[in-house]
Amino acid sequence: MRIDLHAHSTASDGTDTPAELVRNAAAAGLDVVALTDHDTVGGYAEAIAALPAGLTLVTGAELSCRLDGVGLHMLAYLFDPEEPELARERELVRDDRTPRAQSMVGKLQALGVDITWEQVARIAGNGSVGRPHIATAMVELGVVPTVSDAFTSDWLADGGRAYAEKHELDPFDAIRLVKAAGGVTVFAHPAAVKRGACVPESAIAALAAAGLDGIEVDHMDHDTDTRARLRGLAGDLGLLTTGSSDYHGSRKTCRLGEYTTDPEIYGEITRRAAGAFPVPGAGGDARA
Predict the structure, then answer these.
(1) Residue 66: CA count within 13 A, CB half-sphere
(2) Confidence category of residue 287, pLDDT binned at 50, 70, 90
(3) Mean pLDDT score of the chain, rounded to an integer?
(4) What is the mean pLDDT of residues 50-58?
(5) How far is CA 177 from CA 67, 90, 95, 96, 131, in A?
(6) Distances, alpha carbon 266 to alpha carbons 78, 193, 213, 281, in Å
(7) What DSSP assignment string belongs to 88-154?
(8) What does each C-alpha distance from 61 to 54, 142, 237, 246 come to in angstroms?
(9) What is the pLDDT of residues 193-242, one digit of tens each?
């Protein structure tokens, strides 16, 4: 089995619609793909309706969190999307995304970048607006060559010149809320230093003690030494280890299935989940 547990659609900051995402996942030879848009479950219905036979969909979300001033992302899998407390927190984060993005646009304008809110809104479309949409606008303007190049201290990285804060969950609260909704939590790309500051390993240990289920080890932002170190840490803490592409369509260079999760780990994630179940493909909508 080929299992990719981290992918985004146009419901947040990917460039594939949810339907395109599942079709592309099947075409890439995946058996399982997780839809983990930022702080939203808005892509679920479309992805399920288009799910090809032979592909299983894991429903999830990537929750925006902050600990001691450091931003981090928590992957939540197979939770009940209707659970009210977690739904309310996701809504608070989403509601804060637009004013936050507008603030970053203003900061970029003050730095001499000829960017407009209308341009960013066009790029975001109906998705939950975020920094990748602003970064895409900067690429369009020739300010940076790639989306990744916008995530530096000069521009959009945490603490960068154009950075603005938004409402984010405390990760300990995120773990509690996801578990109360029957879900499973995995700390996304915990050592992606190129994105900015990362929480120390002592914080990961504290999150593990609070019920964190796993950490994402095999990821494009982790080099070989980092993966080995994280795998050892996970072993010491009794955490599951996952691998994922963090696919965003054409917005990033990663490919679906570039990194994958061991089937035994996937089986353990599904065993622990009680809020929802993986959805097997039944043919879906085959229209391109």
Answers:
(1) 10
(2) very low
(3) 95
(4) 97
(5) 16, 11, 19, 19, 25
(6) 12, 26, 12, 17
(7) HHHHHHHHHHHHHHHHHHHHHHHTT----HHHHHHHHTTS---HHHHHHHHHHTTSSSSSGGGSSTT
(8) 22, 31, 24, 12
(9) 888 789 999 999 999 999 999 999 999 999 999 999 999 999 999 999 99
Give phi and psi for 215, each to the nearest 5: -130, 145
Contact 268, 29 (CB under 8 A): no
Percentage, residues of the chain above pLDDT 90: 89
Which residue has tokens 């990033």?
Answer: 252
Spatial distance between the Cα atoms of 123 and 135, rounded to a whole number of angstroms: 10
Number of DSSP helices (H) and strands (E) in the chain, helices first: 9, 8
Does pLDDT of 49 surpass 80? yes
Measured in whole angstroms, the distance separating CA 205 from the mean position of its chain's CA atoms is: 21
Distance between first and last Cα of the chain = 25
Question: Residue 123 contacts by C-beta under 8 Å, 6 or more apart in sequence?
Answer: 133, 136, 137, 140
Residue that wins the pLDDT comparison between 13 and 252: 13
Which token pair is 279?
Answer: 């959805």
* Angle value at C-alpha 255, between 252 and 260, nearest 5 degrees: 125
CA atoms 5, 8, 9, 11: torsion sign: positive
- Please tell me the distance from the alpha carbon of residue 285 to that of residue 47, in angstroms, as a whole number: 10
Residue 151: pLDDT above 90? Answer: yes
Q: Give the separation between CA 66 and CA 50, rounded to whole angstroms.
A: 34
pTM of the model: 0.89
d(CA 22, CA 7): 10
